[in-house]
User: Fold this.
Amino acid sequence: MGIIYEDAVMVKEADKPGDHTVITVNCPDKTGLGCDLCRIILLFGLCIARGDASTDGKWCYIVFWVVSKPATRWDLLKKRILEVCPTFTAAESEIYYYIPEFQQPKQPDVFLLKFWCDNDRKGLLHDISKALCKLELTIKRVKVSTAPDGRVMDLFFVTDTRELLHTKKRREEVIWHLKAALEDPMLPCEIELAGPEITACSRGFSFLPSSITEEMFSLELSAKYTSGFLGLDSVSVIVDNSLSPSHTLVQIVCQDHKGLIYDVMRTLKDYNIQISYGRFFANPKRRCEMDLLIMQADGKKIVDPDKQNALCSRLRMELLRPLRVDVVSRGPDTELLVANPAELSGRGRPRVFYDITLALNIFNIRVFSVLRLIHCFLPS
Assistant:
């Protein structure tokens, strides 16, 4: 095809502080590729300031301008992006549309990280989460409890992006980094493959009152989100079929937030919608504008009013409530509840636990216990 595979992804690092790093992807296309790329960028803790994408249906060209962060492992980022890019044979035959049978890849093995900490110091959970992110371990479930003597029992159920946690070398690497992060060389730490009784555990929130779960997991916006700074009037989603004979134009104007492009791409991927052209820009006042030329998997524009309304409604929901957050008082304790939307494939939003523990750390809030499960929001 006249292109070396490694050159399918190019990363041009910022020349000076304040400049953006430019990530260019030039590869065969597939429905949902934009979501996969944005997910990886979000996994590395990076924010997209601007983006452009175009495709002819078989080959795509995508450029992201991202806000640079110190110590970003750009070579590893490039490697992870290359892993989700389709092979060249796909462009030579036909596009691989995102269809249900491709949505359920083999589930990775789940491992249990178990260790005791002698004291429940401030920022402990965030230090652990930060170390696991650097190790490319994805947190699936967490159980943390504080004993009366102040000792903390941590149970982290994780999957390994590198798929090497079954090896002795990888386990030793993880344990070493955890001990370094917690500044405890004598930290007792164990890693074992979680059994089926753990991996098949309930994903529900049966311990919550129905009034809370109905509000947090509802696919409809409640009255408190229909007005104000973060209300419906702060998000504009317009559909126009008059500008192109074969594409539907979707125009979005809203307030910026971390992972905004990922939220839009995830929604379109779940609806099996292909993007033929896309443009995104966030101004210095954090106001975002996005233009997308899209079509359905059958190659046709979206003309059904019900489908248009459903898509616009879901986009507004995801832009207004990328996470569902609530605070509940239970006797002497205060509980912070966070629900995490997920893709149809079952993958949750990247780095949610990291961001939560960071926020709690910033506000000097100590955590006494944690129960983290996965809840998946699926399009109707």
